[in-house]
Specification:
Order of helices and strands: HHEEEHEEEEEEEEEEE
Distance between the termini: 43 Å
Shape: elongated
Radius of gyration: 25 Å
Number of helices: 3
Structural class: mainly beta
């Protein structure tokens, strides 16, 4: 996800150059001013989102990209032949996927072990000292995003565009989906399996058998409701009639604030790449 962040910073830089060019040519901008036009459109697309860890934390490391859907409405207000303002109302899926050995948050097993571990000289299981297991974990985050973009367009029947601006995202749903069966371990290397006492609480101790980790957990209360970020988009559109056009949009976005509420679970940013196809209609 660091690559997405670096690309987004580069795209912001390019957008700033375009904006500067427009400001350095005021006579041309004035000459190209047209009557205000309003375009209303709808789009649907494919999103590739990810979580980027801002700190070294066992709960936020090693997440890979996860695919999803993105759809929404667009509203474009044409200011000049070159410049317009565009706002949108989008539903988008974000998140990340992590497979293999990873920490397990506090659960019923942790509580049971904490009644036994102090008697054998082992530290209690906590969020700072978790158990580990090998399983698949997916963070499914669903947002309502509203970007405010400055859009630069050029061309006639076939128009090209570049847009840049901030967005605000509202968290609609957050689910942690886990799957797989695994032993539990006391260490992040998976070398010390969890052991349990006999029926009377005395030795001999036996290794805890593999357990199922199939679960869907609502984690919305663990995450911030509002996310702020930046978006850069490039696109191409083709006129179908005097008022209708088909457009393709490719964009990258990155959230500026950490999404976690509790620091003990680390700090992560969300971002992604979205490819969309849509239709826009010019209101006369």
């Amino acid at each position: 996800m660091a690559l997405i962040k670096n690309n987004l910073l580069f795209l912001f830089f390019i957008g700033a150059i375009i904006s500067s060019f427009a400001q350095d040519n005021p006579e041309k901008s004035i000459a190209e001013t047209t009557k205000t036009e309003i375009k209303v459109g709808a789009k649907v697309g494919y999103s590739l989102g990810n979580l980027t860890s801002r700190t070294e934390n066992v709960y936020t490391e090693d997440y890979e990209s996860v695919s999803g859907i993105d759809f929404g409405l667009t509203f474009e207000f044409k200011l000049t032949e070159l410049i317009s303002m565009q706002t949108e109302l989008n539903y988008t899926q974000r998140g990340g996927l992590r497979n293999g050995l990873q920490p397990v948050t506090g659960n019923e097993l942790s509580e049971q072990l904490n009644m036994f571990f102090p008697f054998v000289g082992l530290p209690a299981i906590t969020n700072e000292n978790p158990l580990y297991a090998s399983f698949d974990s997916e963070s499914d985050l669903q947002y309502l995003e509203v970007p405010a973009l400055v859009k630069f367009s050029w061309g006639d029947n076939l128009r090209f565009s570049a847009a840049i601006g901030p967005y605000v995202g509202i968290l609609l749903k957050a689910t942690q989906i886990t799957s797989g069966t695994s032993q539990f371990f006391l260490d992040s290397e998976g070398t010390n399996p969890v052991f349990v006492p006999g029926p009377d609480g005395q030795p001999p101790y036996t290794t805890l058998p593999a357990q199922s980790l199939e679960a869907k957990t609502n984690i919305k209360d663990d995450l911030k409701t509002v996310n702020f970020g930046g978006t850069f988009a490039i696109g191409i559109s083709k006129k179908l009639s005097d008022t209708g056009e088909l457009f393709f949009d490719a964009r990258a976005s990155y959230g500026f604030n950490s999404i976690q509420i509790k620091d003990e679970y680390g700090e992560s940013n969300i971002g992604g790449v979205i490819l969309s196809l849509g239709y826009a209609h010019t209101l006369q």
